[in-house]
Amino acid sequence: MKMFPTMGGSSLVLICLMYFTGLVAAQDSNITIPLNKSITYENKELYGSYLTLNGESHVRVDFSNVNKSLYFLVFQAHSYMSSITLNMTNKYGTSVVMGTNLGLVIFTDEISTVNVLSDNKNVTVRVYISVHGYEKNDPIPGGCNMELPVNIAPFLTTLTFPDYVLVEVGAPSAPATDRTCITPLQADMTFYMMYLSEQNFYSEPYFNGLRTLMTLEGIKKYGKEIPFISIPYTRRRLSAYPGTGAIYAVVATSKNFTNKDNLTAYSVYVPNYSYGCNEFDEDSCEMIDDWLSQILCLGLMITGLFICFFGHRFFKTEMFFAGFFSGVIISYILIALVTVVDKPALLPAATVSGIFFGGIWWLFWWLYGIPVLAVLLPSLNLGFLLASIFYYRLPGNIPYLASDFNFWTLFILVMLLTALAVFSVSYAANIICCAVLGAFATVLALDYYMGSNLKFIIINVIRRATVPSFNQAFIAPPDTQWRDVAVAVMWLLLGTLGFLFQHWYNRGRPPFPPPPRSVRPSISEPSTFSYGAISSYFRRRPTNQQGTVVGSVTPIIARPYTERTGLLS
Ligand SMILES: *[C@@H]1O[C@H](CO)[C@@H](O)[C@H](O)[C@H]1NC(C)=O
Ligand SMILES: *[C@@H]1O[C@H](CO)[C@@H](O)[C@H](O)[C@H]1NC(C)=O
Ligand SMILES: *[C@@H]1O[C@H](CO)[C@@H](O)[C@H](O)[C@H]1NC(C)=O
Ligand SMILES: *[C@@H]1O[C@H](CO)[C@@H](O)[C@H](O)[C@H]1NC(C)=O
Ligand SMILES: *[C@@H]1O[C@H](CO)[C@@H](O)[C@H](O)[C@H]1NC(C)=O
Ligand SMILES: *[C@@H]1O[C@H](CO)[C@@H](O)[C@H](O)[C@H]1NC(C)=O
Ligand SMILES: *[C@@H]1O[C@H](CO)[C@@H](O)[C@H](O)[C@H]1NC(C)=O
Ligand SMILES: *[C@@H]1O[C@H](CO)[C@@H](O)[C@H](O)[C@H]1NC(C)=O
């Protein structure tokens, strides 16, 4: 229900807005827009206002007082959720565009009437209309459009796929000199984006976001540049964050004025948006809606808390989950790469395989009982998480990393280095792994409930591994909003608490529990434990406990910490 705010809730706001912004409630009417406001370099907007279309409507828009120094106008109309149509006929031909974020270029040598049409019966559509004026040197947005159905397409097309969003425009043209587009792309284009607040599908932030990115002033202030990663120049690919709206804008600058400090000629395309999901399909924007996912999340949270605070003490359980999570991620990626299975079927398959992996790792510990090797897997998991954060935080314009080979080499390097770094201090490493990974699992579950974007730390890596062309995607996660900050702070706090607690809880115990088959004679051999940090730990412990230095392996024999029951130990 969140998707479609009803009139009841927001009608008061709407009425106020109608009153203050001079809205025209129209079914069939004619309006004339005066365009004698003077423009500045930063803000070339001549007019902007809301228009309300009641049911099936047809509004004719005329322009008056057009400043003679203008060469062309960009007329734009934005509606929320309902599609509208713009049409216009002049000596250059007929242009008809349909959709939600539309625009037309009107040359001032022949100003024609623009028709705004809505054929949504019984539906009131609010439309924001705006007119921008440009001069002779300014490039024409979409002037060299090759693909879209109109000659001049000054608008952005956004296509939302499950994993990424494509933003595409028609190439701009230089106005007076090159209307025939012999040399398209004569102008530079810069793409920008701005996130709306998470899980907010109301029309107010939507319109405010669009209005912000309509002028160069707003774009420079609030927009984040989307770097060019691969050809074509007219397209950008972005990682999708379902439920977080984004507004996209493009600024074209004339190549003849490439001096960055003295850009005199530019034009701004009509901005467009994406919620990272299909907003008409209520399910696709909400990650958690069915009871099964709720239960899974609850399970994840409980497991996470347990590992965070008791992971080291219940070593076998930890071993199982380390194997389980590695198994889920590896088999998810492998299955997705090898076969074409849809996502709902992938997860159960990966889970089954994860249980299998968990079992194998648990068995491994049970059979061999070498702590240093057992800790390797949690360390690698921690390395994976760190490398994923590294990818998540990576600025998008490193062409070197667009190559899969380079990327995965670096990724695995970061992962192994992390594992190696913690590996040398196995006991502390294992507690760190438990605390960090357990806290991550806990906040991951919270993250799903809250609709923040922490989960994309992992999801982006899986996308990179399984989605074709994802190497060209700009990651730019929305991570500065209160939900994300809250979740990250919670992760930090839980991790620290978990570490301190486990450190205290395991004080005076041998660093690792005896392997399950503690009858193994080799265990009491000092040689098994001659791994730097561990043996020194062994030597320290007895001193702390009894005040006298006992033999290096005595504690194990003297105080056998047998684990309690089956898996839960
Ligand atoms: C709008 O203008 C058209 C022609 O310019 C005219 O036929 C029509 O009656 C006008 N409609 C209204 C509501 O004034
Ligand atoms: C625009 O022109 C109209 C009439 O010509 C005038 O009333 C109005 O004040 C002008 N507005 C501006 C901003 O110059
Ligand atoms: C036309 O626009 C130019 C530049 O914005 C401005 O200097 C000039 O005064 C405007 N002319 C009129 C008649 O408004
Ligand atoms: C624009 O729409 C109006 C109303 O539907 C229609 O009368 C007119 O013929 C259309 N013009 C073009 C060029 O399609
Ligand atoms: C519009 O409303 C009328 C009366 O309320 C109803 O008869 C008609 O079926 C509705 N049309 C649509 C397309 O919903
Ligand atoms: C703007 O984006 C919406 C949703 O992503 C899409 O439906 C619409 O067609 C786009 N507008 C244009 C002009 O392509
Ligand atoms: C750029 O400037 C040169 C000479 O100054 C001119 O010949 C050319 O047409 C200009 N190109 C554009 C796109 O304005
Ligand atoms: C900026 O460029 C314009 C046109 O190319 C030129 O007339 C003007 O002197 C330049 N200004 C500066 C500060 O470089």
- Number of strand segments: 19
> pLDDT average, as an integer?
78
* Main sheet properties: 8 strands, mixed
User: Hey, roughly how much beta strand do the residues contain?
Assistant: 15-25%
Q: What is the assembly state of the chains in this entry?
A: single chain
| Global morphology | elongated
Number of helices: 15
- Structural category is alpha+beta
Low-confidence stretches: 1-20, 519-569
Subcellular location: Membrane
Domain TM7S3/TM198-like: 298-503
InterPro entries: TM7S3/TM198-like_dom (IPR025256), TM7SF3 (IPR042502)
Keywords: Membrane, Signal, Transmembrane, Transmembrane helix
Question: Can you tag this structure with a few keywords?
Answer:
569 residues; alpha+beta; 3 domains; eight-stranded mixed beta sheet; 15 helices; elongated; disordered N terminus; disordered C terminus; signal; transmembrane helix; transmembrane
Can you tell me about this structure?
This protein has 569 residues and is an alpha+beta fold. The chain has 3 domains: 16-283, no CATH class; 288-505, no CATH class; 527-569, no CATH class. Helix content is 40%, strand content 23%. Strands 1, 2, 3, 4, 5, 6, 7 and 8 form an 8-stranded mixed beta sheet that branches. Strands 13, 14, 16, 17 and 18 form a 5-stranded antiparallel beta sheet that branches. Strands 10-11-15-19 form a 4-stranded mixed beta sheet, with no helix packed on it. α9 packs across α11. The longest helix is centred in the middle third of the chain and has 26 residues, at 343-368. It is elongated, with a radius of gyration of 30 Å. The chain binds 2-acetamido-2-deoxy-beta-D-glucopyranose (8 copies). One 2-acetamido-2-deoxy-beta-D-glucopyranose binds next to loops. The site of one 2-acetamido-2-deoxy-beta-D-glucopyranose (NAG) has 11 residues, from β6, β10 and β18. It is a multi-pass membrane protein. Residues 298-503 form the TM7S3/TM198-like domain. This is TM7S3/TM198-like domain-containing protein. One of its GO terms (biological process) is negative regulation of programmed cell death. Keywords: Membrane, Signal, Transmembrane, Transmembrane helix.
